[in-house]
Amino acid sequence: MHIGLIGGIGPAATEFYYRALVSLYAKANRRLELTIANADAREMISNLEAGDKKAQAVVFAKYIDQLKAAGCEAVAVTSMGGHFCMDALKPISSLPLISALPALQAHFATRNIKKVGVLGARAVMESSLYGLAGVDVVTVPDEELGTAHAHYVAMAVAGKATDDQRAYFEDAAMRLLNKQGAQAIVLGGTDLFLAFDKPHYSYPVVDCALVHAEEIARLGMS
Hints:
Blueprint: E1 2-7, H1 11-27, E2 33-38, H2 41-50, H3 53-69, E3 74-77, H4 86-89, H5 101-110, E4 115-119, H6 122-126, H7 128-131, E5 136-138, H8 145-158, H9 163-178, E6 184-187, E7 205-207, H10 208-221
Parallel strand pairs: 1-2, 1-3, 4-5, 4-6, 6-7
């Protein structure tokens, strides 16, 4: 299957998906057919913060038309924040959408994970991973959502994490584990791998981008 990715939201996340897919296909000794359309991170963040699903869906639909013209057969949005408009995008998309949400639901179910702490963009945190079924989702307190969102957006746009951003997210993760009883920390922002960049942590870390990339590869090779 020729896969289309909507990238650029942000650039580091796009590179993460690309490297993951190349690695997964190489391990399977399969040839990867891939085309990437470069979206505007600031435009998406503006629509995300405004909660304007329709506007962002129209933007994504244009990129999907480009990917279809390039021969793509299915498309994925390389941003968990970008999933905020999936319900508006699906009816107007000219290609099938590969969403991260069913893959995440299956990931938690097969590992018997019942409660997770999520960090990322405000829309992901406030929506409890977009209302993902089968798992209890906790996040930072309401009064802290703006701080977490601001740290995440700054990191995603810059394509790198500062020491202060790493310290903030690691502290937030420990609070979700120790005070709210999360069994695992979910990187609900596709660029959070920039902050959680240590080889090992003392707690389970679930990277939504990696789970999504694995699902894209599975479908692409099926």
